[in-house]
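Render this sequence as a predicted structure.
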Amino acid sequence: MLKSFQVAVDDSLLNAFSHENQHIQLSIGIGHHKVSDITLSQGDIEGIVTHSAAFSVEGIKADNGMTTIVLRLASGLCEQDVLRSMHAPWRAYALPTEARKSPQHTVLSGASGDHW
């Protein structure tokens, strides 16, 4: 089931920050785990950084100018895989073979929280 939430940023605020070369950043977290950082610039998504191979985060711009950010499980994973990795992220739970073949995921070793 898809649940929707709406975040609106006033145009004058976006314009003021863009003139100063400043960007608005949104972070998505689940519990104390950061899942994604999204950078907005002049009303559009400038960049999306995903901090977990278990999630896919995507920005979709509609014809009416509205941008939708979609957070979903990575292909090949189920809810139990995600919960298990969040409870014990230091354990080397293997990703399903299907997810390993997907070019959208990069597994980094040596990661510890927000520090690399």
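Summary. The radius of gyration is 16 Å. Residues 45 and 87 are 31 Å apart (CA to CA).
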